[in-house]
Amino acid sequence: MGIVIDGVLHEDGRFPLPLTAGKPHTLTTSPGVGRLSLGPRAMGKKADLWVEADEPIHWPCFDPFTTMAGSPWPRHIDYHGNDSGFFAWSAQREIEGFTWKPALPHNVEVDASLSRIDTLSLHLPADAAGNLHIHLPSRPPGRVSRLGLHGALHKAQFSGGLPQYLSLSPATSKRSSDAPLQLPDMGALQQVQHLELGNGAGKQPISLRGLRQFTQLTSLSLWGHCVDLEELAALQGLTSLQLRFMPQLSGLPALDSWPALESFIAYNVEEATGKRLRQQMKAREKQRAWGDYSSVTQLRKPEWWAKEYGRPFAGWPATRAKQANAAYDAAELALRAATQRQQAQAAIEAFTVRFNSVKGIETTEREDLGEAVWQLAQRPEAQALGVTEELAQQWFDAVRDY
After folding, report:
1. 110 - beta bridge partners?
2. CA–CA separation, 281 vs 285, rounded Å?
3. Could you give the strand order of the β-sheet that contains 108-111, starting from the edge strand earlier in sequence?
4. What DSSP string describes 65-134?
5. Alpha-carbon distance 240 to 257, whole Å?
6. Half-sphere exposure of residue 257, counting CA atoms within 13 Å on the CB side?
7. What is the C-alpha R_g of the chain?
8. Strand (E) or helix (H) holding 173
9. Does residue 1 register a pLDDT over 70?
């Protein structure tokens, strides 16, 4: 393995890189690694190269680097910062994947009409003072084949051409009991034909009422907790529908609601509706064969959803998640047996203290543990003993070291 620089093969190692003005950065390459992360020093090891958010970047410094097969290296770039110059750079150098996480301290307008980025992922901060407007390529040689929008979707507007595929992952809260999130007006992107809408299975639900704005849809893929599924009946042009990791399918129209449907996939969905979907698939096959792969698999009972996705540990590393779930199970058992508020307090404090000995608890994990304490306080046994959200939070803060 190795890296090609100006046409010469080098062993993987460390190379000077004129990424910004002043002293060159040191680029370290590793066998088989085609992704590079750039961001502020505060990111620590999460960034391969440290660049402050407002520091101008000399993007063409990567031009001499290619893979052994001759394609541009790095293939994928993750950038936390405000320099939008990579759009102009990509007009001269194709980029397979670019993830941009700008701070948007003010309004930003970008002409990306000549950009050649196959997959562009934008992470939009809700607390940003500014908005982002991007003029997308409308004809070759420029292109953005796949556009992914994450976070505060209303912070971005688009003009010009359309991506072939659009993926939306709006920021949702960790509480499935919160009021459903409504999709914003997506402007010019309403005309896309292929859409993916993603959410966590245990998070605040997304209302599907906002899908009516996508009048040209032929392909729709849904992930996670969604509500108002009856709205899907309005999407009469669908030829492909995919449902994954959906804990509730209440209101889902029958499959014959979409006369042009050729492919249907339901994977890891709630059991009751899943069984009906299997019957509908068989009935449809007797009338007309499916034109593409179709299946309904991994039907899940309510208790599976409660443990796997109802708790806030789903995104944790496997070992740490196992520890957290074991501690949560113990707290639930103790609460069921509690007859006095002091016993409920002891159960919640024991859960909290369990993580004082765990090294490297990050901010997001601390927030998840606080959310778990909130969930424990909502249990009927805790409520019956007078445990309030405020009390549980006080007990949590009083005994934790993280």
Report:
1. 134
2. 6
3. 108-111, 132-136, 156-160
4. EE-TTS-BS-SEEEEESS--THHHHTTTS-EEEEEEE---SS-EEEE-TT-EEEEEEEEE-TT-SS-EEE
5. 13
6. 15
7. 25
8. none
9. no
Q: Which of 113, 130, 134, 111 is nearest to 122 (CA)?
A: 134
Quick check: 127 pLDDT over 70? yes
* Residue 327, φ and ψ in degrees, nearest 5: -65, -35
Contact indicator for 39, 79 with CB cutoff of 8 Å: yes
In the DSSP assignment, the letter for residue 181 is B
User: How high is the pLDDT of residue 334?
Assistant: 95
Compute CA 350 distance to the chain's CA centroid, rounded to the nearest angstrom: 32
> Helices 363-377 and 341-353 meet at what angle, rounded to 10?
160
Look up the pTM and report it: 0.88
Phi/psi for 214 (5° steps) reads -90, 85
Nearest Cα to Cα of residue 283 among 296, 271, 270: 296
Q: What's the gap between Cα 309 and its chain centre?
A: 15
**Per-residue confidence at 309, pLDDT binned at 50, 70, 90?**
confident
pLDDT tens per residue, range 349-378: 999 999 999 888 888 899 999 999 999 999
The DSSP secondary structure of 212-249, one letter per residue, reads GG-TT-SEEEEES-EE-GGGGGG-TT-SEEEEEEES--
Which amino acid makes up residue 57?
I
Burial class (CB in 10 A: 0-12, 13-18, 19+), 186: buried
Residue 37 backbone dihedrals phi, psi, to 5 degrees: -115, 130
Task: Identify the H or E element spanning 168.
Answer: strand 165-170
Whole-number pLDDT of residue 7? 87
Strand partners, 21: none
Helix (H) or strand (E) holding 195: strand 194-197
Residues 6 or more apart whose Cβ sits within 8 Å of residue 53:
39, 40, 80, 81, 82, 103
Buried-state track 16-36, b at ≥16 Cβ within 10 A, e below 16: ebebbeeeebebebeeebbeb
Q: Are strands 143-151 and 116-124 parallel, antiparallel or unpaired?
A: parallel
Query: Across all residues in the chain, what is the average pLDDT?
Result: 94
Contact at 8 Å (CB) between 269 and 299? yes
Task: Please say whether the beta carbons of 289 and 266 come within 8 A.
Answer: no
The number of residues in the chain equals: 402
Q: Are the CB atoms for 192 and 201 separated by under 8 Å?
A: no
